[in-house]
User: Fold Ubiquitin-like protease family profile domain-containing protein from Saponaria officinalis.
Amino acid sequence: MSHNETRSKGVAVDGMEPVVIKMSWRSTTNVDDCGVYVMRHMETFKGDPKWGCGLKKNDDGTLYKLRLSYCANLSFSLRLCSSKLRSDIMFISLCRIPKVNFS
Assistant:
């Protein structure tokens, strides 16, 4: 996509009015789990106007399970990335840094 195409799409989006979708599970009091709501939305929304994500208002049990699941997945992913990063750094350091003889 060229710079001009990207710019024209940006201008088109800039002129749009946001639409707040009515969701049965929406809460104005639970501000702690907004990340869980966003993750669930991204995981389940496929563009269907009659979409349901499986959440109910004030469903603490489901939110707890989702919070645990997302936290475990993120932690595991970070651990894998960290391990890969360490091995990449080791490989690069062995290949690119010349050995120095201090004798």
